Amino acid sequence: METKRVNYAEESMSEQQRTVKRERVALTSGDVSAGQVARLRDLFPEVIVEGKIDFDKLRTTLGAAAESGPGRFHFGWAGKDDAISLLQTPSAGTLVPCPEESINFENTGNVFIEGDNLEVLKLLFKPYFGRVKLIYIDPPYNTGQDFVYPDNYADPLKAYLQLTGQVDAEGNLLTSNPETSGRYHSAWLSMMYPRLFLARQLLQEDGLICISIDDHEVHHLRILLNEVFGEENFIASVIWQKVFAPKNTAMHFSEDHDYILIYARDADTWRPSLLPRSEEALARYENPDGDPRGVWSSSDMTARNYYSDAQFEVTAPGGNVFTPSRGNYWRFNRAKFAALDKDNRIWWGNDKNSMPRFKRFLSEVREGVIPQTLWKFEDVGHTQEAKKELLEHVKYENTDNVLDTVKPTRLLKRILQIGTDPKADNLVLDFFAGSCSTAHALLALNREDGSNRRFICVQLPEPLPKPESQLKKLTDVGKERIRAVIEKFAKDAGSRLDLAGSEKPQDLGFKVFKLAKPNIEQWSQDEERDPEAYGQKLALFNDPLVTGWKPENVIWEVALREGFSLNTRFASENLANGNQVYDVADPDTGQKFMICLDDKILIDLMKHCELKADDLFVCRDTALDDSAAANLALQCRLKTI
């Protein structure tokens, strides 16, 4: 009888009760494919037939723009189809909060997530779609010694749980990828593709992604990024001089640089934030003639471009006559030249008898300088500086293989300066966080320019080659570094430069989450489609919540499934009728819902809740009888666990 009740087959139900629809809370993360189809439907509704894409209609609609045939350019590798299938498989995992490992958990907007980044990106897909301003990643370089992520296509969450010891199994997710492997490059590309695809979905329209890489995979990565982001959205390939001295032990050449590949979500929309002028650049501006318009620098007034009316003689106040050198011409015609001279915008030298130069006032030029593609270690730091920075904040003696690829904060500050707006609370994502140099740089830059950028850092809990008492995994290093940086800044809170008119204190906190198996029992699609099998499963598992579930973990899981961010907050309330409810709200988006996890929802609950037709109420399915379900469904949007 109980099984029939759960399956809405009670003979005694009223007609109204019989039509009550109990919508289920989603058991997995958002469906990437469904999102892509939805966007295609918006553009070409005529090509969607019964929920599926009719590719013949799509080709007809696109006409000549649809490329086909074996002669077209195609980038493929062994395992690409499996990588795409893995991308399209929603995550069944969840994120559990760890307040005891956090600082100011309830109020901070900074997040550190311990877990496999592909599963985490799938969980972030719905809550953070189109909300990230800047992504920076420093993935494994695939040198043959780095760890790579050979994803388990059948059950990625299980593979992660095996790695972290949360379930009993043999094997290890992390393996080396030696060059003797027949799929050396393919394995790396299969690891990168789904992560980059999801990363693009998270970017704002004016968002940017920057990726550190070396010569081993830069060419493959460039083609892969062209496929995922579109080659028209390529911005630059930056060369970073990572060492300050040549390696004389090198067999052929001393490798002195790495690359940073930069792509925009939409190159037509994205523009770089200008970099501040260096002290050296500012020193070039002087005011030797006491011009009331302020300091200025001078530039050559000739150019190699041909102007028919720019070949003439000019006479200096001291009497000397000048013409452009052979093959050059004045940048201005005679009338413009005379007007500039009259406005004291031409510098004839201290003796007023030198070759004329154009005066450019600092007050009239852009506030910053446009980024260049060559970044020298003098300006953005080098690898030795990066190692020293880390060891200043994390006491870890066994540095072998841990510090080889750490990046200096000056390098990451440069990326943050270019890719974020200091006047906005931009969100920055790093899903290969390593020792959390990005979080360190972001907190430091916020202190320097008064901004309130926020970070989400994701890192796999890789075991350290030589674990110490407090530091056994790479995630331990990252969390310890963030704590040390926050503690240092908190001691000197008065040194922060606040933005004009801003009363917002710097966010000196971070909340920790960990990837884990779900709190809600997973049902297979076959069981859901077969009422008899579904009823049998329900009879065995009357309540889908797993043994030992905690209310806060269940609430976070439901919130993620509903698209709520990791800044979501909730508060409990004991109602007069005896039920306990939680008000859940996301301050980032304004979304909210109410949830009750009691064993039974009392029929008079609605008398004590101010729920409207568009409000969402979530509860356990086993807590509802038919009358309570009918009343709730009439009053608000009802979803059950």
Blueprint (SSEs and pairs):
Elements: H1 2-6, H2 15-18, E1 23-24, H3 32-43, E2 48-49, E3 52-53, H4 55-62, H5 80-88, E4 94-97, E5 111-114, H6 117-125, E6 132-137, E7 147-148, H7 156-163, E8 175-176, H8 184-202, E9 203-213, H9 218-229, E10 234-241, E11 257-264, H10 279-282, E12 296-300, E13 302-303, E14 314-315, E15 321-322, E16 329-330, H11 334-342, E17 346-347, E18 357-361, E19 374-375, H12 377-380, H13 383-393, H14 409-419, E20 427-430, H15 437-449, E21 454-459, H16 474-491, E22 511-516, H17 525-529, H18 531-540, H19 551-561, E23 569-574, E24 580-585, E25 592-596, E26 616-619, H20 626-635, E27 637-640
Parallel strand pairs: 1-27, 5-21, 5-22, 6-9, 6-20, 10-19, 20-21, 25-26, 26-27
Antiparallel strand pairs: 2-3, 4-22, 7-8, 9-11, 10-11, 12-18, 13-16, 14-15, 17-18, 23-24, 24-25
Helix pairs in contact: 5-8, 6-8, 8-9, 14-15, 15-16
